[in-house]
Amino acid sequence: PDLEGACLPFAQQRDGFFLGEGSAFVVIEELEYAKKRGVNVLGELLGHGSSYDVSRGQDEANAVKRCAGAIQSALDAAGISASDIDCISCSANGSKREDRYEALALAQVFGERLRSIPLTAIGYALGETLGAFGLLQSIAFIEASREGRLPGIAGISESFDEALPKLRIGDEPVEGDFNTGLILSLGYDGSSAATIISVPDSSAS
After folding, report:
1. How far, in Å, CA of 74 to CA of 114, rounded?
2. Looking at beta carbons, which pairs linking 76-81 to residues 24 or more positions away fall under 8 Å?
């Protein structure tokens, strides 16, 4: 297909992104309080990490290091390792530069295992919603986990940028048990945020 100018994450022909608009909210409380109230716990926030690249993306090595650092901080806060992550929701949206930094940072943390971890990137469908994107991704991950179905990216199989680390991302949805997910949100000011969410087995369907 002709993808010139496409807002397609990790695609060789990617040429920027389009802006989206949206809002979302979640109720976060201590797990014990939620259990006492008898609510249906949709997900548990295991850990969070953030960092800031003072070069604001001008220094690739530093940008990748800071993004990888945010991911590792989230893993450390959650008390788990990279091998415990079942899937990844990427911030990638078609930006030539930031998509590359994100892929390199993931490769730095996950190594060869990155080839086998299912990834999704919903920015091509939602648009870049800036500050709201991380929360929108989190909600999308919870629903994907409950359904056992991670969204694909139409058109990526024929257009993946082979200059990037190999990623497990395809056109079709991937089915499986996705109980622990990593959600990445990168800002164009140099900020990186990583969140790890676990969806209880009792909530998954």
Report:
1. 17
2. 76/47, 76/49, 77/46, 77/47, 77/48, 77/49, 77/196, 78/46, 78/47, 78/196, 79/46, 79/47, 80/46, 80/47, 80/180, 80/196
User: 8 and 156 in contact (C-beta within 8 Å)?
Assistant: yes
| Structure-derived torsion over alpha carbons of residues 71, 119, 177, 43, reported in degrees to the nearest 10 | 50
Predicted local distance difference test score (pLDDT) of residue 18? 65
pLDDT of residue 156: 87
| pLDDT averaged per 10 residues, the chain (length 205) | 64 75 84 89 94 90 96 98 96 88 97 94 75 85 93 87 93 93 90 94 51
CB neighbour burial string for 13-41, b if at least 16 within 10 angstroms, e if fewer: bbeebeebeeeeeeeeeeeeebeeeeeee
Helix residue ranges, H only, 131-186:
133-147
What amino acid occupies position 128? Answer: E
Alpha helices, DSSP H, located in 2-126: 31-37, 60-78, 96-110, 123-126
Tokens, residue 119? 């990834």
Report the distance separating Cα 96 and Cα 57, nearest Å.
12
Q: Given this model, what pLDDT does residue 132 score?
A: 73
Q: Can you tell me which residue has the tokens 């969140």? A: 195
